[in-house]
Design a protein that fits this description.
This protein is an alpha/beta fold and about 350 residues long. It is built from twelve helices and 14 strands.
Length: about 350
């Protein structure tokens, strides 16, 4: 249920309605806009008569909604969510798209990571991505450097000013990762790790949720609902491809349609990862451009100083020369940097 308050409704009227709902065992979430306040009401079973609410002072309209993802829906929050970081970088709304780049895994070669970070800074990227805790299909594959990897990322941030995105796999690691990261990423394998999602709802750091390889868009949005309903409004969605059947040519099927669909039904920012979405480095640029044209708030893609010898995902990582070429092209599309004029001076 969505309750739209009148533009001149008082705080006393708002408080009365909130108490009425709370007394009946329902939860509420108030979205305060520039013109109107909107109350989202949710719970296991709604036991409130909409006609009773609509008759209360200060109420303009009461609407029933069918979507189970109440808090992340446009009906509950018509305006785009914009997430702002202490250094002024913003994700969402009408802000220019951001770029999140880096290696799949943080490796023992810190100088290599620093080389990547400096190249990312040079090309106007805002985020350095890299996994310190790595979920791998085989128990014998590289599992990440854990805290040492987080320390490497933090050191690279200190050198370059880039913000850090890294994956959290377990509730027990949340407090540790919060010490180092600017965005905590929920990987595709953990999209239905509900205990983890609930715990991330109780922190103040932004959370980015990657779509599972077999997750529907509804399931994707419901994963975000777990985080938001537990108190953390700073959620970013990341489309990274769904499982297809033509594995000879691409790792996954990058669902570009998810971008305008999510923007229609949800107020949360949406990022696209063409590296995992395709598994092929030559597809990063065209699919990245397609995602931006479709309305993505940013891109995440993998780069490595020596992809042929990367500990993971080398085939979908750009080397630094390729990275500069692709990012120059993407930046032209974004409109962030006019390279032609810059180079003509």
């Amino acid at each position: 249920m969505i309750i739209v308050m009148e533009h001149n409704a008082t705080q006393q009227q708002l408080d009365r309605i909130l108490k009425y709902i709370d007394d009946r065992g329902m939860k509420t979430h108030v979205n305060k806009g520039d013109v109107l306040n909107v109350i989202a009401v949710f719970g296991d079973k709604l036991t409130i008569n909409p006609e009773t609410i609509s008759a209360m002072d200060g109420v303009a309209a009461v609407k029933k909604i069918q979507e189970p993802y109440k808090l992340v829906s446009r009906q509950a929050h018509p305006e785009d969510t914009v997430i702002e970081f202490p250094n002024g970088v913003k994700i969402g709304g009408l802000e220019r798209p951001v770029l999140m780049v880096g290696p799949c895994s943080v490796e023992k070669d810190y100088e290599g990571l620093l080389q990547i970070a400096r190249a990312a800074k040079e090309m106007g990227c805002q985020f350095l991505r890299g996994g310190a805790f790595k979920p791998r299909t085989s128990p014998y594959d590289f599992q990440g450097l854990e805290e040492k990897g987080l320390q490497y990322l933090a050191k690279a941030r200190q050198e370059t000013g880039l913000l850090i995105v890294t994956e959290v796999m377990d509730t027990m690691d949340i407090s540790l990762i919060c010490k180092y990261a600017d965005i905590l990423q929920v990987g595709a394998r953990n999209i239905q790790n509900f205990k983890l999602l609930k715990a991330l709802g109780r922190i103040k750091k932004p959370v980015m949720i990657k779509r599972g390889p077999a997750a529907t868009i509804k399931e994707f949005l419901l994963a975000a609902e777990y985080v938001v309903s537990n108190g953390n409004d700073n959620v970013i969605l990341c489309e990274r491809g769904i499982r297809g059947f033509d594995s000879e040519f691409s790792r996954n099927v990058l669902d570009i349609t998810a971008v305008p669909i999510i923007r229609k039904y949800s107020h949360l920012p949406v990022i696209v990862d063409p590296s995992h979405g395709t598994g092929k480095r030559y597809l990063i640029e065209p699919m990245g451009k397609a995602a931006l044209v479709a309305g993505a708030h940013g891109l995440m893609y993998e780069i490595h100083q020596d992809p042929d010898n990367a500990m993971s995902d080398g085939a979908q990582s750009l080397n630094l020369d390729q990275f500069r070429e692709v990012t120059r092209s993407l930046n032209k599309l974004i409109g962030r940097i006019d390279y032609d004029n810059k180079n003509s001076k």
